[in-house]
Every structure is written in structure tokens, then in C-alpha cells.
Amino acid sequence: MAEHRSMQRAALLDAARTLLSEGGTEALTFPALAERTGLARSSVYEYFRSRAAVVEELCEVDFPVWAAEVAAAMAAAAAGPAAKVEAYVRKQLELVGDRRHRAVVAISASELDAGAREEIRAAHGGLVAMIVEALGELGHEQPRLAAILLQGVVDAAVRRIELGAAEDPAAIAEAAVGMALRGVCG
Predict the structure, then answer these.
(1) What φ, ψ does residue 177 adopt, rounded to 5°?
(2) How far from 54 is each of 48, 50, 61, 104, CA to CA, in Å?
(3) Phi-psi label, residue 24: left if phi above 0, alpha if psi -120 to 50, beta otherwise
(4) 88: how many CB neighbours lie within 10 A of its CB?
(5) What is the pLDDT of residues 5-43, one digit of tens each?
(6) Would you say the C-alpha torsion 90, 91, 94, 95 has a positive or negative sign?
């Protein structure tokens, strides 16, 4: 019984990712979840009390996986803090096409309750914390502030890629890495 419930919950989360990546938060409804999973609409409520609860669980499940992939890329980077910064930026931009990432972007763009917004803030805070040490090693006097600003560059590049900008995603990634490593005038 517990295994069945776990499988159903996983199927609901997978359906939620698909709905979010295909149609944004407007597409994430309990009737749509029920249709995608073959469950009765009332059964969806047995797993999640609200749409915000679905969003919170997606954040709890997907952000750590995404963060682990970024951390692994940084760990595998060539020696030195600059290589870690580059890996931090590149890996996040590589993940843009991933359904988990697309769902997170859709979630982030929506109006959510305070709990879901806090989950997203905490997850982004975890990403930012990953790069603070490398920025400190590069000589930034305020590495935490530099990390927040660097994440802003990454977030802007993500939005540009997600919008299907005129530039090739590889060109956007190169520009973001260049800004991260050399700044605007470097």
C-alpha cells in the first residue's frame, strides 16, 4: 500500500512538471493532474491539499537534485575558483531545457502562497551559497553580495533562453560566463 501511494505521488509530481513546463502555472490544476495520471479528481486531493502543496513538494524534490547537479559540475571543474564560477554558470544554463528546471521557472513566475515562495527563496539561497567561497578566493570583498549579483546574471540569461531570444542559447551562455568572469568592462 505504501509503495502504491509513493508511486501515485511520484506520478502526480511528474504530471505537475509536465503541466508546468508545457503551460505554466495556469495549466497546473487538479482536473489536469487527474487526467494526466488517470486518477479521479477526488483522489488527487488525497495526496495534495492544494496547488500550492504540489508546488512546495516539487521544490522540495527538484531543487536539491538541480543543486546537486550544479555542485557536481563545480566539483568536477578544473582547479581554481574561476573554473568553479564558470561551471556554476554553465551548468545552470545547461539545465534550462530540463523539465524540472522548466517547472521551477514556471513556478517562480507565478503568484504563490508564502510557504511556496519561501521554499523557492531557500532553494535559490542554497545555490548562491555554493559559489560564495569561490568568489571570496577570487578576491571579492563581499563574496555573498557578489554571489547574489552573479545569480542575477544567471537568472537573466535563463529568462533570455526561456523566452526563445534571437541569440543562440550557446551565445547567451558565453555572454553570461564572460560577465561572470570579466564583468562588463573586463
Answers:
(1) -65, -45
(2) 6, 7, 11, 12
(3) left
(4) 27
(5) 889 999 999 999 888 878 777 888 999 999 999 999 899
(6) negative
